[in-house]
Design a protein that fits this description.
The protein has 14 helices and 21 strands. By secondary structure, it is an alpha+beta fold. Strand 4 and strand 5 form a beta hairpin. The C terminus is likely disordered.
């Protein structure tokens, strides 16, 4: 995989249009397999998204339905190759300062309005100005629209990941004629009742219960999609029976202590394929704006107190890989030449004493709150482990805050109303897209989850990010990211635990999945279900 990524990062600025491959091309009418059409796909999710506009928020829960509702200019296959989508071809200038997109000519939004270059312009500027990934389109100066089917993205400086940034849920094309009405896009009513551009159109969203989408008959790829409906079922807890009975077709990020049950079921398949671009890391974020985490010695003490190897063994059956910094293992820019904070209880206690947090008569030093992603037993168990370890080893009392839903969790963390947070955050292919956002001094944005919620700011780190974000030489970028990782790990705004071992559990009669580096945050226009597997919940 690293060879593909290295080629992509080294040559991406010189790529032009690439022909459709795999399932991406429209089928000729004479070759259409009519048996693929029909059925409702049921997709289980642990939490409801805050809303359905992925142009202004990030996360799996908005990404899963978002990529079905909204098309992007490009999509990527499983070899890191960009493929046409709304843009049938594209060209990057030799100096890397412009990208010209040539749009398909028959694409419409779900209300029948044509998708034009003005919508591309509006969407890019909206994402640039509102999305948590502030570095993703920060180099965009403007978008020219010389005709309805040509958009020219003008860059202030070269962007080594500009094509990746135009894929999947990273750049949903939203309708200017709806969102450009002057209302605040963060609270726009269309966020809960969207008019999309993708293969499936919105039917209903009942928070905490389900999201229902149906086939858009005038989708611009002829003959697509195959499915009649996609239902995202919000599940309060993992239910293996719903998978084994055929009532649910897909369950992402499955509960690891149920894997034996699922692996033995002849009607199910389990794969880790399709997550190469996401690279999810589990970490503990510290609110550096509050005591005691404004003191690096306290952050270091917590890192030395928590045994990552034990968490991997007990909670993930040894299937996870240790994470040591902001860029995940297996990424070509990853380095392990950083402080590893291997468990050292003596050192942890010495650091806490030196910081002035001595034990009281009950052997406790101080109390803190720990937040975690709700409705996930794995993170409940991990939180309980951290609570026990910190009290037993270092005299730190941890009170776990159980958010009733993802909205409450998001509000607390994004607005800085937390002490420590156990979270999962993605690298999103290139660090410019998914890593810089967490450490940028200019991306401390109250109310925006998956931004710099820790309140971390180091001007040296910002200078490195500014430099590497415009550098097109692969080896120079790699060297800069090595320095970047060493400084971040030394400053310790976050303690990195593990690379999350993500997988997809799906019914064996579901076809067309996992043909992209973006996994389940890819369009389902190619997905279909065998007719004999029609045991679908109608509830």
């Amino acid at each position: 995989m690293n060879q593909f990524i290295q080629k992509l990062f080294g040559m991406i600025l010189f790529l032009t249009s690439i022909n459709f491959t795999m399932c991406f091309a429209a089928e000729q009418a004479s070759n259409v397999d009519k048996s693929k059409y029909g059925n409702e796909l049921v997709f289980a999710m642990a939490n409801s998204p805050l809303h359905l506009n992925p142009a202004i928020i990030s996360g799996s829960y908005v990404g899963f339905p978002g990529v079905q509702l909204f098309a992007s200019p490009l999509r990527f296959d499983d070899k890191w190759h960009p493929q046409p989508y709304l843009a049938e071809k594209w060209k990057i200038s030799k100096n890397g300062l412009s990208v010209t997109l040539h749009l398909v000519k028959d694409a419409t939004f779900h209300d029948g309005w044509p998708i034009t270059s003005k919508d591309i312009e509006f969407s890019i500027i909206t994402v640039r100005d509102n999305h948590p990934f502030s570095s993703m389109f920060s180099s965009v100066e403007k978008v020219d629209t010389p005709d309805p089917h040509t958009a020219i993205i003008r860059l202030k400086n070269p962007h080594p990941a500009i094509l990746l940034a135009m894929s999947s849920s990273l750049l949903p094309i939203i309708p200017k004629h709806i969102y450009g009405d002057g209302k605040d896009i963060k609270t726009h009513p269309a966020n809960m009742n969207p008019v999309g551009s993708g293969p499936f159109k919105f039917v209903e969203f009942i928070p905490g219960d389900h999201i229902l989408l149906e086939r858009y008959d005038n989708f611009f790829i002829k003959g697509r999609p195959y499915l009649n409906k996609v239902r995202f079922k919000i599940c309060k807890k993992f239910d293996p029976l719903s998978m084994t009975s055929g009532h649910t077709h897909i369950w992402p990020f499955y509960k690891h202590d149920s894997v034996d049950i699922l692996e033995n079921d002849k009607n199910l398949l389990i794969t880790s394929k399709g997550y190469e671009g996401i690279l999810p890391l589990i970490w503990i974020g510290f609110n550096m704006r509050k005591k005691p985490f404004d003191d690096i010695r306290v952050r270091q003490a917590l890192a030395y107190s928590i045994d990552r190897e034990l968490i991997s063994k007990d909670l993930f059956k040894g299937k996870s890989i240790k994470a040591t910094g902001p860029i995940g293992p297996d990424h070509p820019f990853y380095t392990d030449d950083v402080e590893h904070y291997n468990t050292d209880i003596k050192k942890a206690n010495e650091l806490l004493d030196a910081a002035g947090y001595v034990r009281n008569k009950n052997s406790k030093r101080f109390s803190i709150k720990l937040d975690y992603i709700p409705r996930n037993i794995t993170y409940v168990n991990m939180s309980e482990y951290i609570k026990d370890e910190l009290l037993r080893k270092s005299g730190i009392e941890v009170n776990i805050r159980h958010s009733k839903n993802f909205s409450e969790f998001s509000a607390n963390v994004s607005n800085g109303h937390f002490d420590m947070v156990l979270n999962v955050v993605y690298n999103w292919g290139d660090p410019v897209i998914g890593v810089h956002r967490t450490y940028d001094c200019n991306n401390i944005r109250p109310g925006v989850l998956y931004s710099n919620t820790q309140g971390y700011c180091n001007p040296i780190v910002n200078k490195i990010m500014d430099k590497v974000a415009v550098e097109r030489d692969f080896q120079k970028r790699k060297s800069l990211y090595k320095e970047f990782q060493k400084i971040i790990v030394q400053d310790l705004p976050i303690y990195y635990l593990l690379k999350l071992p993500v997988s997809t559990v799906y019914n064996k009669n579901v076809f067309g999945l996992n043909d992209s580096i973006w996994g389940l945050t890819s369009p389902f226009d190619c997905v279909w279900i065998k007719k004999e597997n029609d045991r679908i919940s109608k509830n």
